[in-house]
Predict the structure.
Amino acid sequence: MINLRVFRYTLRISPSILLILLIPLAVAGLYRLGVAVTPRDGSGHPMVLSPSLHAARQYLKQARTWLDDLAQIDTDLAALLDESDETAEELYAQGQQMQKVGERTTGLAQRVALAETPVALVGLRDRFVAATGAYRDAALATARWLNAPTEAAHQVAITALQEARSLRIELEESQWLTK
């Protein structure tokens, strides 16, 4: 018969052995987490998210919201130019709408001009500045038409809106903003 002597301290797991067992599990868990949250490019390869890439992605996200704002301003200006109300109350209501559209247009132009722009996207920023400036000009022309509703002022406002719209469409077709 074999006598086996086992001391209590040999059955305890020492902290160093526990650490040796847990390190590979922790590394494997962190690896899986990294794979799950790493952004991928169009072909599915992982992207290194550097500060400049992050800034560019944030700017492009912001630019897409600016495009939506420009489209809404375009719709509002077109609606104002299509109306031909003659009563004082209707003209006053149009003036109030025009003031709101003008404030939104000016605010958007300021946000675009003051936004921190990555170096790679300076050209896109310049195009946005031009488009928001054109919409600001269209809003001013529309306001002038509402204040003095003549056919010549109406044509100037329509022409300004068409020019602004063409700049917005160019932006929408930009490779930077299409996905």
About this structure: Residues 51-82 form the longest helix (32 residues). The radius of gyration is 31 Å. The helical segments are 8-11, 15-37, 51-82, 88-114, 122-147, 151-172. The CA atoms of residues 77 and 139 lie 7 Å apart.
